[in-house]
Specification:
The protein is α/β, with parallel strands linked by helices. Helix 1 packs antiparallel against helix 6 (about 180-240) and helix 11 crosses helix 12 (about 400-420). Bound molecules: ligand C2E and magnesium ion (2 copies). Ligand C2E binds next to strand 14, helix 14 and strand 18. Ligand C2E binds near residues 447, 460, 504, 536 and 645.
Length: about 675
């Protein structure tokens, strides 16, 4: 991770090094200036010397080499010179003076012990001998001056050529020592002050920088963390389902490919289970989306309990799930898992204080025996799942090659269905509805059939859901309504003027905005009086959007059409809506009528529904009436109309006039 305060630290260190180097350069410069300044003042001193004292001693000193060292040290001239020099330099910073003749021999020194020493090789002497003065600064812990020994001193020593005039030849070389200790102490003190200032301000700067950089660092780190969190969130959203927390469809495709690769490489089997919740749409439609969500969440949790750690569960669609089993040892493992899932779902799910039982239909495909590609494995398990559904739901089915044929047949069926309307292959059958009191036909229900060239008359349950899925239900439904109206008008014209017709309406049709206009148009076109038309709606149609449903039904009532609720009691209905709707009939679902004679609970339910309908002033209709015993009970409950095989199955339109005129419906048994 990027840590900017490190860069701040490095920058500060570089700054400190740069300042140290600058201070060092500055110090040397100061020394240089000091030495230069001292050397200049030594030159001035020498000049003054050569103008005043020198002429008196020049001759003697020029010949001094003829004396021995000892003679020279004790010579009376030297002694005098000693005194002159002392007088000159007394109370000045000069602490020592030496004089060399042109051969480099020390002919005079305020320290007599040094007289006679040879300095001809000294670079300072050589330079001064050539006329160029030089100087340097040295530290001496002990030094002999003309006034005695001094300790720990900084001295500037300069070699100065002695000339009578500016362009005159060099006659001798002076070496002058001056004590610059006080100056040096001063300079050093200043230097320390500067260093203290620089280091102090630098430290402050660094501290300031550190605070800023730390803050920036924290902000950057926080941003980094936020970015990583966002990335993780985006990744999560892309790969997980928010509702159940399971891997989603995208993840499924990726993981299946990966798992297949592994299985292929290792030569192992892989199992794919695909399943969806049976009748989930009904739960969602009748109890609302939040109830549906709760069912999905609970189902997902139960599935997770069923699987091994290495297996993965996915939510691949609204109520669709998948499990990848990899590695798979044998097919029994898959069967066991599928059974476990089915069992785990058997326990009711509590939603809004209601116990719902949701079952699953599972389709299974196995790699490598079924197919090698991920796409085909998915397709195959999907076909197997559809088979499990068709064969009664709440079970699992393995994919078999025969299903391929089945899938092809289904495709052909769908293609045929698309053309059925143009090809005039739909027909309406009519099932009589008799008045309980008189047992006379008062109405007929129009029931759709598909006259298939090879399959014969196809019942609506096997193609109406397909029409809905394929988006064809509106056009076919319109045809049904118009045909039923025209047919009923024909019967009226033929003298059967009391008969009503009821037409089933699917939710897809009901949602279309122009639905009421279409109904009005069908009535206008056929010339049928609106009071003879009844529309049968299922509970799910109403629950989807009760406000719109009430509005549409009010409009239908306004044009004079009767409305009934079909298959009442089969959905997860809320009785609350009944009081909101302008209903004329309630058709009890035939499952309650079926076992009426033997099932006391069904009896109780019908009694309750009957009481409810009467209190709301809605007429009760019973469908699926097959036995006379049922008729008696229904009569006792003031059921207004009866419909069922006991009176007549659905018949072609041509059969109806005879039935009405002779009332042949009166009890088939
Ligand atoms: P539904 O509206 O409840 O129609 C009654 C169904 O019960 C009919 O099945 C009828 O043949 C059957 N039935 C009547 N009496 C008895 C009986 O005594 N015993 C038994 N076991 N069954 C009896 P069908 O014609 O197969 O229709 C099935 C469903 O298809 C209908 O149920 C209805 O929901 C739907 N349907 C039929 N025609 C249309 C249509 O034109 N449009 C729409 N949207 N749905 C339709
Ligand atoms: Mg019906
Ligand atoms: Mg029904």
């Amino acid at each position: 991770m990027f840590r900017s305060h490190r860069y701040g630290l490095i920058t500060s260190i570089v700054g400190i090094v740069a300042i140290t180097v600058l201070l060092f350069v500055y110090r040397n410069l100061v020394w240089h200036v000091l030495v230069e300044h001292e050397t200049k003042s030594h030159a001035t001193l020498t000049q003054v010397f050569s103008n005043t004292i020198w002429p008196r001693y020049a001759l003697f000193l020029a010949d001094a080499s003829q004396f021995s060292k000892a003679e020279l040290q004790h010579h009376e001239v030297i002694h005098r010179l000693q005194q002159d020099v002392a007088r000159y330099i007394a109370r000045s910073s000069v602490v020592k003076i030496k004089i060399y003749d042109l051969t480099g021999i020390t002919v005079f020194s305020t320290d007599p012990a040094q007289i006679g020493q040879d300095k001809s090789h000294n670079p300072g002497f050589i330079s001064a001998n050539k006329g160029v003065p030089t100087g340097k600064i040295t530290f001496r812990d002990r030094f002999n001056t003309f006034e005695g020994v001094i300790v720990d001193r900084n001295l500037v020593s300069s070699y100065i050529p002695v000339r009578i005039s500016e362009n005159a030849p060099v006659e001798a070389v002076f070496e002058v020592y001056s004590d610059v200790t006080d100056l040096v102490v001063d300079i050093k003190k200043h230097q320390w002050e500067i260093i203290a200032w620089v280091v102090g301000s630098l430290s402050l700067c660094y501290l300031f920088l550190l605070v800023i950089v730390r803050r920036a660092d924290k902000t950057i780190q926080a941003q980094d963390k936020q970015r990583l969190d966002d990335e993780a969130k985006i990744h999560y959203q892309a790969h997980y389902d928010a509702l159940t927390g399971l891997h989603n469809r995208i993840s499924f495709a990726e993981r299946l490919e990966e798992a297949l690769k592994r299985a292929r490489r290792a030569g192992r089997m892989l199992g794919l289970l695909q399943f969806d919740l049976d009748r989930f749409k009904l739960v969602n439609d009748s109890l609302g989306q939040s109830a549906g969500d709760q069912v999905l969440r609970t189902s997902a949790k139960r599935m997770l309990v069923c699987i091994r750690e290495s297996d993965m569960v996915f939510r691949t669609g609204s109520d669709q799930f998948a499990i990848i089993i990899e590695p798979l040892r044998n097919t029994e493992d898959v069967s066991r898992l599928a059974s476990r899932v089915i069992e785990s779902m058997a326990e009711p799910i509590k939603v809004n204080d209601q116990d719902l039982t949701v079952t699953v239909s599972i389709g299974i495909s196995i790699f490598p025996q079924d197919d090698l590609s991920a796409e085909m494995l998915v397709k195959n398990s999907d076909s197997a799942m559809h088979l499990a559904k068709q064969e009664g739901r709440n079970q699992y089915r393995y994919y078999s090659p025969a299903m391929k044929q089945h899938a092809l047949d289904r495709l052909e069926f769908e293609t045929g269905l698309k053309q059925a309307l143009q090809n005039d292959e739909f027909v309406l059958y009519y099932q009589p509805r008799v008045e309980t009191k008189s047992e006379e036909i008062v109405a007929v229900e129009a029931l759709l059939r598909w006259a298939h060239a090879e399959r014969g008359l196809v019942p609506p349950n096997s193609f109406i859901p397909l029409l809905e899925q394929m988006g064809l239900i509106n056009s076919v439904g319109e045809w049904v309504l118009r045909t039923a109206c025209q047919q009923t008008k024909k019967w009226h014209d033929a003298g059967m003027s009391r008969v009503r017709v009821s037409v089933n309406i699917s939710s897809g049709q009901f949602r279309v905005r122009s639905f009421v206009d279409m109904v009005q148009d069908a009535l206008d076109q056929s010339g049928l009086d609106a009071q003879y038309l009844e529309l049968e709606l299922t509970e799910s149609v109403l629950i989807e959007n009760i406000d719109t449903a009430v509005k549409v039904m009010d409009d239908l009532k306004a044009i004079g059409v009767a409305i009934s609720i079909d298959d009442f009691g089969s959905g997860y209905s809320s009785l609350n809506y009944l009081k909101l709707l302008p209903l004329d009939f309630l058709k009890i679902d035939r499952t309650f009528v079926k076992d009426l004679a033997t099932n006391e609970k069904d009896m109780a339910i019908i009694k309750t529904i009957a009481a409810l309908a009467h209190s709301l002033n809605i007429k009760l209709v019973a469908e699926g009436v097959e036995e006379s015993g049922q008729v008696e009970f229904l009569r006792s409950q003031d059921c207004y109309e009866l419909q069922g095989f006991l009176f007549s199955p659905p018949v072609p339109s041509a059969a109806i006039p005879d039935m009405i005129s002779t009332q042949v419906v009166s009890r088939a048994v």
